[in-house]
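queue> pop job 88
queue> type: inverse folding (structure -> sequence)
queue> payload:
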């Protein structure tokens, strides 16, 4: 039987793989051709040419390292600014704050730039809609409250840029939770600085806390909405200024 002469394994250089090449360690036999030659729909541009002609160089468009890195790691400029409002049970004040802030953001056409949510320091009302009295009072002002109660969780300290507590007790409970979770959940050491009092943004009112209206009358809910509208307007303005939107 006549011996089949061996062929030198070719080396293919790919422009999109700088400083590297692809070498086949075994002799390359070019027949039969790949399945793709029998079915054009399975062909990959340049692949068959590479197989049939080792000297063929596939034209490529240079890939920018910066653009590829940007695609893999979205910049902070495109990441939505995340705001979390927190009260005790997440059925009165914090869902109202969420609703008020959403309404303001929507009116300015900035929906895509924000991630807005609310939570409670306890899970007693988890899964429930906001208090119907609060929803009714807000609706009279054209504000819809649709959030579902949930407790604050460790990941909130990572996911949100600012955490607004309705009163000092809420703030204390949030910070206490952070102290419990920071080592167990490997939270950023400086994340506690995200926690602020809601009324610290008020410009038209002197109150330092948003009072809990749960055990009060209708006037209590109106007062809460007055404070939240004031604080949320100032909060939004400060974020817009900071982000130059």
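queue> result:
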């Amino acid at each position: 039987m006549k011996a089949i002469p061996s062929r030198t394994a070719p080396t293919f250089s790919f422009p999109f793989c700088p400083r590297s090449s692809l070498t086949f360690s075994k002799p390359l036999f070019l027949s039969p051709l790949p399945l793709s030659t029998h079915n054009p729909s399975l062909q990959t541009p340049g692949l068959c040419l590479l197989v049939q002609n080792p000297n063929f160089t596939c034209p490529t468009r240079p890939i920018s390292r910066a653009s590829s890195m940007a695609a893999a790691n979205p910049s902070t400029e495109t990441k939505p600014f995340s705001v979390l409002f927190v009260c005790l049970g997440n059925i009165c004040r914090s869902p109202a704050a969420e609703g008020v802030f959403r309404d303001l953001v929507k009116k300015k056409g900035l929906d895509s730039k924000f991630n807005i949510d609310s939570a409670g320091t306890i899970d007693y009302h988890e899964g429930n809609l906001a208090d119907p009295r609060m929803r009714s009072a807000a609706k009279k002002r054209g504000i819809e409250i649709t959030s579902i109660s949930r407790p604050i969780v460790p990941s909130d300290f990572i996911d949100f840029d600012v955490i607004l507590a309705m009163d000092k007790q809420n703030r204390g409970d949030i910070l206490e939770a952070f102290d419990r979770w920071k080592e167990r959940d490997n939270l950023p050491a400086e994340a506690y600085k995200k926690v602020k009092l809601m009324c610290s943004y008020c410009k038209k009112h002197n109150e330092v806390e948003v009072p809990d209206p749960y055990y009060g009358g209708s006037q209590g809910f109106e007062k809460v909405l007055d404070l939240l509208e004031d604080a949320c307007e100032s909060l939004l303005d400060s974020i817009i200024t900071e982000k130059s939107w």
